[in-house]
Amino acid sequence: MKFRLALLIAKFTAWGINLVAKGRGTNLPGKVALKIDPDFISHIRGLDPDKAIFVTGTNGKSTTTNLMAHVFKKAGLRVAVNLEGANLIGGVIVSLLRSTGLNGRLKADVVLMETDERFLPIIHKQLPARHLCVTNVQKDQVQRNGEPEIIWRKIASVLDENMTIYANGDEPNALSLGRLAGRCVKYGVDMNSSSFDKQDDFFSVTMPCPVCHEPIAFAAYNIDNIGPFRCSSCGFGTELSDYQAMDIDFDARTFRVGEASYEFKYSTPYFLYCYVAALAVAREFGVSEEKISEAFSDFALQGGRMETIHAGGKDINYIRMKQENPETVQSALNVIADDPDEKIFMLGLDELVDFDPHYTNTFYTFDCDFRRLINSNVSKCICFSGTVAYDAALRMVYDGFDPEKLVILPTNDDAAIVEELSKCECSKVYLITWLHKFESLAEYAKANA
């Protein structure tokens, strides 16, 4: 009776929220259901752990989940999935609610859930999925996550002999988790034209081997801290994966796995790992190469990683990233560096207002390599921030940027930023900042259009 009551009230709550604020009810109905029935998920009929997949990791889990869902749907399967990125327990329940009838039976062939890596043990206790895809375990949100080994241990706590893990074979932490599961399916990416080496960088550091804790040596990087690696002490390292992306052509936007060739619309290495992870899971679930190829060719990521606003007489290209995550910053820098045209680069790192105590974090930028960007025809760099504008500018200087081309604005005032930009002659502008600041700039630009 508790479950039936929870089901009805949660569905009614979701309906009501959708009526007044469409798309906002991604967590609250789930919290309501759990309040009434703490074991709500386990009471859903027809929920098979062998057909449930979790996708977790520091970077790439939303894109990978979206890709997998698109492939499964293209194959004609009914999918219960949290595409909105609501990856805590409440969001997982809301996604299950949509595929559960009033009789309490799940109407889905596959359950596919993006899960926050910190809350994975809590979610897994409610829904003991037997398939887990791990994208990577890297530095991220130090205030929340501490350091990567803490997250590694949380993921490791759900693994046992009944689990199949799909592990990124080019990322040491993810690959090492495969030793704890009953079965490990590895996916990876060959070295390619976008692979790079940063071992001669003064600021470059490696990472400890997750097996013996000695330093890892990377032969190259496909994306930051992901690529063919080997521990010189214990020998743990990259092997040929079960699903290996080869013959990567970023111009043609194609790659090969086995004998089959696939398209990928988003031609950056970051996205390529998402594609291969999705392919690995889909093939293991019996989806044909033909259906996967068809799905990849017409996949469209909602709300992409780049947005454009018009301000100061110029189009500003904003690349989404997390200031608290060096891998996303590096990926954004690489995208900008691939553009050979003359450009203005705007860098807006700042105090992160999350929960007390707020903090300023620029140390992750020392994990990044700015040299490719600096040498890609950047005519001016504008560093703005209410707290760390000078710190950000120094990071550029340390990697060789001409101080004469630097403008430092120790402010977050939108009008001052746009006014400074309007003085520049170059018309192409790239912006890296945190999402809240971009949204503020976008609102200012719209109001003053």
With helices defined by DSSP (H or I, 4 residues minimum), what is the helix count? 15
Report the count of strand segments.
19
Helix amount, in percent?
25-40%
As residue ranges, the low-confidence spans are: none
Main sheet attributes: strand count, strand direction, barrel closure? 9 strands, mixed
The N- and C-terminal alpha carbons lie at a distance of 57 Å
Strand content: 15-25%
Mean pLDDT: 90
Can you tell me the overall shape? globular
Query: What is the CA-atom radius of gyration, in angstroms?
Result: 23 Å
Q: Pairing-aware structural class of the strands and helices?
A: alpha/beta
Biggest sheet strand order reads 2-3-1-4-5-6-9-10-11
Can you characterise this structure?
By secondary structure, this protein is an alpha/beta fold. The mean pLDDT is 90. The protein has 15 helices and 19 strands. The longest helix has 19 residues, at 2-20. Helix 1 packs antiparallel against helix 2. It is globular, with a radius of gyration of 23 Å. Strand 15 (351-352) and strand 16 (359-360) form a beta hairpin.
Question: SSE layout and pairings?
Answer:
Layout: H1 2-20, H2 28-36, E1 52-56, H3 61-74, E2 79-81, H4 89-98, E3 110-114, H5 120-126, E4 131-134, H6 142-145, H7 148-156, E5 164-168, H8 172-177, E6 183-189, E7 216-218, E8 229-231, E9 243-249, E10 254-257, E11 260-263, H9 269-284, H10 289-297, E12 306-311, E13 314-319, H11 326-337, E14 343-348, E15 351-352, E16 359-360, H12 371-374, E17 378-384, H13 389-398, E18 406-409, H14 414-422, E19 428-433, H15 435-447
Helix pairs in contact: 1-2, 2-4, 3-9, 3-10
